Amino acid sequence: MQSPFSFAVTPEIHFGTGTGAEAARAAAGFGRRMLLVSGGESHTRSEHFGRFLKAAENAGIEFTQVKISGEPSPEPIDRAVRENLAGGIEVVLAWGGGSAIDAGKAIAAMLKKGGPLIDYLEGVGSKKYDGERLPFIAVPTTAGTGSEATCNAVISRVGRNGFKRSLRHKKLMPDLAFVDPLLTLSCPHQTTASGGMDAFTQLLEAYVSRGASPFTDALCESALPGAVLWLPRLLDGESDNLEGRSAMSYAALVSGLALTNANLGAVHGMAGPLGGLFPIPHGAACGTLLAPVTEKTIAGLFRENPAHPALEKYARVGRLLSARPVNEKTAACRQLVETLYRWSDDFGMPRLSEYGIGEHDLDTIVAASANKNNPAELDRTDMRAVLLQRL
Ligand SMILES: [Fe+2]
């Protein structure tokens, strides 16, 4: 019998080259006063952004721009809310990577609630966020978090008592997403690598998750072949290949849909506290942990229950990665793990020590880590061994 499941999705998704140009007209449908949340300079210098601004002007939109650099902390969100609370803002549009989109979601929410944001963060604040927000449109310019299709905004404060937590509500899903692979062509190598590893990790973790459903399985299976084919090629001299960029934009979008509905595993369960305690970017944390966590999870599943359905899913991804046919499940899983270790090296995934993490920090990180919906339970010894391996 089919297990019960529910499925939430961004109400309107426009995917394809050139769709970014349509975002301004869509924003005008919500009102004339727009708060534009954008990411780093590279995106806002692009010809596509210039065209978008022109289209906004032609549509009679007046806008105020807020720039978010790096993963958002509560302070720039609260500042943007304070400065625009009396501005009659009718719609918030985020143009940028996952950080800009998460910031845009939080700003759209706090412009209604008044803030401060920290009061509403899961596990940090004391107030329950009820989902009230301004209309919100997401235009991703990187292929990574899939935030255009998730119902949370990740906010962090990095440091000894730091956190990486979410503002979350099913109504926080963007009203519209314009996913235009053309916008990702100018992504630098490092962003393509870390974003791509985040998207791939989210696809793999959602695919094998204990929360997976036939809907999320079908979605992951539609995106994984393109991701495994194109991520290595984009990072090996083909960064301007539009077919590859399109495959990764699709992979990121689907990874967001999949994680929202199937949840994630131990990589994200460890990447959260890592990113709160140390200044390691989210994609880099996922990318560096993925191979050893997958290896330990597969070993645990073979030990506990060799017939576990997640093993066949891991094997399927292993077969996608193999140049020759691999029928046998154990060999296909080994292929997956070997490839993930190779990707870590080839894609320049960092060592944890590069971010000031030492052996004396590992127990603190492990204590704050979670398995989430990992198909096999990793205990504290497993998690410590993973971190030690990646120091
Ligand atoms: Fe992620």
Give structural attributes.
alpha/beta, Dehydroquinate synthase-like, alpha domain, 8 strands, binds fe (ii) ion, Rossmann fold, six-stranded parallel beta sheet, globular
What this model shows, in words?
The chain has helices spanning 23-28, 41-44, 47-58, 74-84, 98-113, 189-208, 214-234, 242-262, 266-277, 282-304, 309-320, 329-346, 362-368, 380-389, and strands at residues 12-15, 33-38, 62-67, 91-96, 136-140, 152-157, 163-168, 176-179. Helix 6 packs antiparallel against helix 7. The mean pLDDT is 96. 49% of the residues lie in helices and 11% in strands. It contains 14 helices and eight strands. The strands form two sheets. Strands 1-8-5-4-2-3 form a six-stranded parallel β-sheet, with helices on both faces. By secondary structure, the chain is of the alpha/beta class. It folds into two domains: 12-184, Rossmann fold (3-Layer(aba) Sandwich), CATH 3.40.50.1970; 189-389, Dehydroquinate synthase-like - alpha domain (Dehydroquinate synthase-like, alpha domain), CATH 1.20.1090. Bound molecules: fe (ii) ion (FE2). Fe (ii) ion binds next to helix 6 and helix 10.
